Amino acid sequence: MSRLYDITPTIDASLKVWPGDTPPRREVLLDMQRGDNITLSTLHATVHLGAHADAPSHYGADAPTIDSRDLEHYLGKCQVIAVSVARGARIRPSDLAGAIEAPRVLLRTGTFPDPRVFNEDFAALSVELVDLLHEKGVRLVGTDTPSVDLCSSKDLPAHRRILEHDMCILEGLVLADVPEGVYELIALPLKLKGFDASPVRAVLRTL
Questions:
Q1: Spatial contact of 168 and 69, defined as CB atoms under 8 Å apart
Q2: Is position 38 within any domain?
Q3: pTM of the predicted model as reported, rounded to 2 decimal places
Q4: Under a CB-based contact definition with an 8 Å cutoff, are residues 44 and 157 in contact?
Q5: Measured between alpha carbons, how far apart are the two ends of the chain, in Å?
Q6: Which domain, by its residues, includes 148?
Q7: Is 196 a domain residue?
Q8: Which terminus of the chain has fewer CB atoms gathered within 10 Å of its CB, N or C?
Q9: HEC states along 74-107?
């Protein structure tokens, strides 16, 4: 029997977002507990919320928005790889142990352990690693951090190289309890026309 791993952080008021971005807030419009006939609420939040898919338009001028991305990128064979890397460092090709076995790779760094606490010294991807993944046929890369670039980065070299290779990005995943190995990834973005990202409900299913 297959097993599901939910790799999505819970979305509530305690979930941290990028400094300066819009944190999640629920506005209750109608509430059966108050005597209304239904419960109805509105979500106010950034689209870069928790586990989310970046669109190329987030880091590339005139690049595709999230609604135009092929869903095949976010669904299918996926490999979880644990990397031992210092906080605030960029992951190098030499940090990967073993072969790339899937067209989607999720990197478990352990450098952003609590989605409710925003630590700025999380690890990120190097340009050399992005190039290697592309050479190995990887079309989606995901991380357990808020960004594939360092928190202090302004020129976003990893994002830009990913754009050059037309790869997809998942960020904000919760991978602490997921063993290394090959799974089926299901992490479909919402069809948000013109948007630069979308939250996803990301899960891994054992094969």
A1: yes
A2: no
A3: 0.96
A4: no
A5: 9
A6: 4-8+47-206
A7: yes
A8: N
A9: HEEEEEEEECCCCCCCEECHHHCCCCCCCCEEEE
102 domain-assigned:
yes
Q: CATH number for the domain including 55?
A: 3.50.30.50
DSSP 12-46: STT---STTS---EEEEEE-GGGT-SS-EEEEE--
Please give the DSSP secondary-structure letter assigned to residue 47.
S
The predicted structure's pLDDT at residue 20? 97
pLDDT per residue of the chain (207 residues) written in tens, 0 to 9: 899 999 999 999 999 999 999 999 999 999 999 999 999 999 999 999 999 999 999 999 999 999 999 999 999 999 999 999 999 999 999 999 989 999 999 999 999 999 999 999 999 999 999 999 999 999 999 999 999 999 999 999 999 999 999 999 999 999 999 999 999 999 999 999 999 999 999 999 999
SS3 127: helix
Question: Quick check: is 109 in a domain?
Answer: yes
Query: 140 and 106 in contact (C-beta within 8 Å)?
Result: no
Distance CA 121, CA 161 (A): 21
Number of domains in the chain: 1
- Residues serving a catalytic function are 58
pLDDT at residue 28, as a whole number:
98
Helices (H) and strands (E) in the chain, counts: 2, 13
CB-CB contact of 197 with 55 (8 Å): yes
